[in-house]
Write a structure and sequence with these properties.
Layout (H helix, E strand, L loop, with lengths): L1 H20 L19 H5 L27 E8 L5 E10 L5 E17 L5 E19 L4 E14 L2 E16 L4 E15 L11 E9 L5 E10 L4 E11 L3 E8 L11 H4 L4 E8 L2 E9 L5 E10 L1
Antiparallel strand pairs: 1-2, 1-14, 2-3, 3-4, 4-5, 5-6, 6-7, 7-8, 8-9, 9-10, 10-11, 11-12, 12-13, 13-14
Amino acid sequence: MKKRKQEWMKKIISLILIGIAIYVPVRSQGLYQGLSQPIDARGWGMGAAIVAQTRSSSGVAYNPAILPLVPGKWQLSYTRYVLDIQATNGLIVWPAPWKGNLAAMVGYLDYGRFNELDENRNDLGEFTVSDLALRLGYGVPVTRKLSAGFMATMVSSDLAEYRSQALLGSLGLLYYDAASTLSIGLAYTNFGKLISGYLNDDEPIQPQIMAGISKKLDHLPMVIAADLMHYSAGDYILKIGGEFIFRENYFIRWGTSSRRFEIGTRETMTNFFRSSSVGGGLIIKQMQIDLTWLSLGHAGSIFAFSIAQNI
């Protein structure tokens, strides 16, 4: 029993760190933290305000109704969090043989290696903690301005010799007016059933409701977006982001979140920018490269890198 408590303490510490990193209070979602993070550097750069994004695939993991507006493409992303926590995400989008678009995603979140100790603090060796998520999504246009989407997710979390697995789903709607560039998104994500838990099968799955709005400004080469996320445990998070577009090939991004008021105590200059991001990208011969830096105040920072190409 003591051995299990020590392992769970290490897991809780990791979850606290990753919860800080992805804007999500840990009490809202104890399991599968990687499902709530952006899948690319553009998403991180815009403060994760991507539920209603239409310019790229940044928001499809949150709102699969974006898929009909995403061209066929492949994408690889890497995210480096604090300590040894890191994530890798892969995405491919292709036209469905009937109507709409299909997407397949794989995400691996590595919490790092830990030393296992017995009750006498003898070193029993190392163990790892990680999450693996496999997603398959489908988005279809319903009308000229409205689209809908569904995503199925199989997720597995490993903690030493323990494993937790779940089968989850996500539903989304997107309204997009090409003339005004106004888009409004609504999604209900990560609902489903726990197949097996670490120690029991009644660990809670916490779905989220997400609403977002996005628009390209009329007199400024910038897209601005805002999202409101509600977790079933009762938490609300507001996220705001923007993207300056130069000659359609160069991008500068910024973002922030209401989480900035929760992840610091000392109001120093470093902590003033906590939960705020800055990033950029460029397109070179159909290849898009994006970078983002996100501040966690005195807790550290996050770095994200993505590369994508239309197919």
